[in-house]
Amino acid sequence: MNAPVSNNSDQNPDSIRARMRAGRLYVDIGEGLEEERERCQELLHDFNQSRPGETDKRRRILGELLGSFGEGGWIEPPLKLAYGSNVHIGEKFYANFNLVIVDDIDVHIGDRVMIAPNVTITPTGHPVDPELRAPGTQFSLPVRIGNDVWIGANVVVLPGVTIGDGSVIGAGSVVTKDVPERVVAVGNPCRVLRPITERDKTYYHRDRVVD
């Protein structure tokens, strides 16, 4: 994997990269950030333009593109990322079409996670105050998604959110705060609907019984 080379500015607590990691406000220009984003977009172009039968090519590109990508994982094109190198994904991952990850900083996704179409995961946001926002100022807070999570279609996961192991995020939800383990959570803003219980081993959807 050809990860970007560490920048000497990492040692400066007021550098752009240090501000990004600390959740402080920054403008993402300089310190080699533009070059890293361009590298990501070049690899994404090759991935998204690959032919359906070029599975080995797709896996190779994902290995170069992502910070880490576990065994048995698969992502359907098209895929959109900011840097790619800040995305860390576990084993047996599956993402359907149009996954967007704005990975200015780390996004950690566990094992056996399933993501439906048109999901956006964004650790990055902008200040509410218009004067602070005017120069293009932004902030980033890491996102963490546990093992065995299922994220439904058209979900948006916002900065700083952690989703606990085994939980389900209902389609169309906007996840603004942490979701605990083994619950179904839905809505905008996303709220816990109910725990996942033994009943869910018998009924997979409403009153549809598992054969």
Question: What topology does this entry show?
Answer:
Layout lengths: L15 H6 L11 H16 L6 H11 L2 E2 L4 E2 L3 E3 L5 E3 L4 E2 L3 E3 L5 E3 L4 E2 L4 E2 L2 E2 L4 H4 L5 E2 L2 E3 L4 E2 L4 E2 L4 E2 L4 E2 L4 E2 L7 E4 L4 E5 L7 E3 L2 E2 L2
Parallel strand pairs: 1-4, 2-5, 3-6, 4-7, 5-8, 6-9, 7-12, 8-13, 9-14, 12-15, 13-16, 14-17, 16-18
Antiparallel strand pairs: 10-11, 18-19, 20-21
Helix pairs in contact: 2-3
Describe this structure in words.
Strand 18 and strand 19 form a beta hairpin. The chain starts with 15 loop residues before the first helix and ends with a strand. The chain has helices spanning 16-21, 33-48, 55-65, 130-133, and strands at 68-69, 74-75, 79-81, 87-89, 94-95, 99-101, 107-109, 114-115, 120-121, 124-125, 139-140, 143-145, 150-151, 156-157, 162-163, 168-169, 174-175, 183-186, 191-195, 203-205, 208-209. It is 18% helix and 25% strand. The protein has 211 residues and is α/β, with parallel strands linked by helices. The strands form five sheets. It has a seven-stranded mixed β-sheet, with no helix packed on it. It has one domain (16-202): 3 Solenoid (UDP N-Acetylglucosamine Acyltransferase, domain 1). Mean pLDDT is 94; it is low at 1-6.
Write out key terms for the chains shown.
UDP N-Acetylglucosamine Acyltransferase, domain 1; 7-stranded mixed sheet; globular; 21 strands; 4 helices; alpha/beta; 211 residues; 5-stranded parallel sheet
